[in-house]
Each structure stands twice: as structure tokens, then as C-alpha cells.
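Hi! If you just cloned this repository, the fastest way to understand the data is to look at a raw example. We've pasted two of them here, unedited. The first protein comes first, obviously.
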Amino acid sequence: MFVDRVRVHLRAGHGGAGVVAFEKRKGRPRGRPTGGSGGDGGDVIIEANPSMATLLTYRRNPHHQAGHGGHGSGDTRQGRRGEDLILPVPLGTLVYDDAGTLIADLVRPGQRVVVLRGGRGGRGNAALASPQMRAPAIAEQGEYGPEGWFVLELKLMADAALVGFPNAGKSTFISRVSAARPKIADYPFTTLEPSLGVVEVDGREFVLADIPGLIEGAAQGKGLGHEFLRHVERARVLVFLLDPSPLQELPVDAQLEVLVREVESFSPDLAHRPRLVVINKGDLPEAAEARRRVPDAEVVSGLTGEGLTPVLHRIADLVEEAGRSEPQREGYVLHRPVGPGFEIRKEGDVWVVDGVAARRAVRFADLTHPQAARLAARRLARLGVDRALERAGAAPGDPVRIGDLEFEYLADEEEE
């Protein structure tokens, strides 16, 4: 089963918690702090893999999660880092976030994008020690790994694409000139999924795609062709395959007009791609009339093999010319800048301080501990949260929420 578009739910690993521990010596029940930090959670990475041909595995299982970081322990032992989750996808896969933003276009083997970073591990009391707090009895919690929905969409990577009406003989053509073996039968819409084949002719190679049959209105969603028109977008050369047989309602010149119009309607950029017009089924009596209607077309027979070698050389020539005039597609990975440390909004009567930096400032196991409360207050003050709340109009006694923590705003609290 060929699957070229899926929606997946991904989650990065949680960071491990830091711990509180002290060196124990005879006569000194609490020596220097030795609590280790937690390990970071694993990242979620999507990587282009040439051995993948479809996104079927993600249709069957859309939920994936990276490994969690281990907790710290005494003797300053740090927790292990969570295992990264590497999701292989076919070459030519587009990655979108749930808002529809294109994050990456993965076209080269091994090209990858980190879609979610693992949660940061919490620091143990050994890492929190400072001249102002020589023996901290507090430790940080690990961060939760972020999660979200993403869309994976495949566009086949082919040098040339066969475009034609249903039952025009595209499957027979590609099976004759390559090792691809699509299903072939004598009824419309026999090809329900695109297929790729490597064509070799006299030492020359190119990749040919068989695109399921188009009908008039395909670009607007009519029939099956609109599901696969996007696979034409990456092809450097378009091969319009015309069918002169009585099975087609339109003569070959009208077929060509419809096919060109549908491709151009789907993507105006395709109108400028090199193209080759080929009349298939040249072994039929109707082929002579078809040649008269489209005199510039090549004539072949996918069934008998007549005329195939010259046409394949023509396609190879066009592919090479297009390659010289157009640089190799490098793919695309969006470098998303880190957002602001925090932002403030009001939800009802509550001031909400949201942002990674603000949440990290208060991520202690017990904020009722005086050391944790003082350190959190200093961190928030350094971030400018106090001043931002004041500018936003917060009044003393107003509730403020950061993550799961809620407290009262004290405008006259002395910053430490």
C-alpha cells in the first residue's frame, strides 16, 4: 500500500530530575553537596532514508516518543541522556508542523531535521552550589518533553514523469523499460499508486515515475489524479503519453490539451519544464491517425517495444539538459529561532507568564523551601518578569501563574 501523506503525533523525552545529596563524613553529617543532575530527554529527528519508499508505517502507528533522561544520583553521578528518536522517511518528504508551516524538505540521503528538542535535565544540588549558597538543599526538576502533531507529505524524486489518461499504457511502458512492476489491467484507473523505475539505456540512467491517470478537472480534485499530481512537481521532464485506442473518448490532440491544462492549473511552474509528447500503442491501426493529429509526437509501443530506445534517449537528453540548467535540489530545513524568554498575557483575573526561560526559573521540586523560593525570585528578576508584570498593569496581590505554579504578585518585594 502506497501512503504519501500522514499526520503523526511526536513527543520528545522528558529530562531527568536532579537530586539532593551530601558527602557524609564522620563527625560531619552534611558535607559538600554531591547531588547529580538529571540527563536531558531525547530529541525527535526525522531523517531521509533511501530504503524507505512510503509512509505506510506511520499510517499504522502515528504515535512516537523519544527516550526519557535518567535521574541524577549521589556522588555527582549524572543521569543518562534519553535516546533520540530517529524516524526514517522516503527521499522527497516534506515536514509540516500542525500550523501548516513547512519545517523541512528532505531530499538527500541522511538529511535530517530535529523537530522537537528533549526536555532539559534538572540540576542537582552540586551544580546549584555558589558563593551565595554553598550548601543548597534543593534540586531542579527535569523539563517535560515538548509534543505536537506534524504532517509528513511525500513527493516522489524522479527525473522524468509519465503523465497520461487512465489506461494510456503508462504502467506497461514503465514495466517494459525498467524493473518496476505496477499492476496492469484493461480497465480505467488500474494504477492506484505512483511507482518509480530506474531506466538504463546504453549506459545512461534516469529515474522514471508512473503517475496515476489524470482526467479533466484533476487539478480541482476530480477523479483520482489530484491525489498524485504533487508527485509531478519534482520531475525535471514531463512525458505526456497519449492513447490512440478506441477506449479513450478524446482524440490524442484533445488528450494532450487536457493534460497540459491540468498540469499547468496545478502548478504554473510546471508549464516551463521540458516536455516530450509520446503516442503509445503504436501497434494499433489508430496510431496512424494519431500521428497525423500530433505530428511532432514520438510513436512507441509499450507492448511490443517498438520505438522505445530512441524515445528513452530523448528523455535522457532532456534530463541531462535540465540538470545542467538547474542546480541539484539541496532540500530545505527551517532554522527556527529561539523565542523570547517569556511573554505575559491575562486570562481572566490571572496573569500568565509563559515561556521556556520563565518555566525553567521555577522548576524546583519544592518551591516552599526558602532556598528554592529565593533562587526562583532572583531568576525571575534577572529575566525582567517583575518589571514586565508592572508595565502590564499587575497590582499587588494579583495571581500570577507560571506553568503549574500560582502565586501572588508583590510589587514591592525586594529583588535579591
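Ok, and the second one:
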Amino acid sequence: MHIITRKRIVDFANKYPNCSSALDSWYRILRYSTVSNFSELRAIFPSADQVEGLTVFNIGGNKARLIAAIHYNTQRLYIRHILTHSEYDKNKWKKE
């Protein structure tokens, strides 16, 4: 799957180094995966959820949340936000 954009992962990992390895692992797994639908994605990431048309991944034992728009037909994943758990709970990302 083509992940757009890795820069958000790098920026978040630089700010929160304790999530760096978990984000890198998530990236490597999805980059080399072909996923046709949400059910197949859940087989790889059981904690993934769909929220308001976006997919939310728990990263690093729930230390961070990665919010993405996934287009299965084109195999593209657009990273919308990467937030700490407390930032995610404020729900401000839903208004953007």
C-alpha cells in the first residue's frame, strides 16, 4: 500500500521518540501489504476502528492514534493525523 505522507510519521516520532519503533513497524507492515477491504485490514491490525469514514489505528500500546483515509481500490493510505491518546480524546480532529 502506498502511504502518503511518511513525513507526518517522522515528525511525530521526533516529537515523541517512545512511539518511534511502533510507528516504524506499522509503516513497514502496511507498506508491504495489499489490503482489499477493512476486514482484511483488521486481520493485520485487530485494534483498527472506523470512525466517521476514517480508519483509526492504535499505535504503541495505545500511546498514539494514527488517523487515516484509506482508498482500497487504489491502494493508497493518506495519513490525516497522528495524535497522542489525550489529543485524540479531545475530538478536535473530527472537526477538520
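That's it. A detail worth noticing about the second one: The mean pLDDT is 91.
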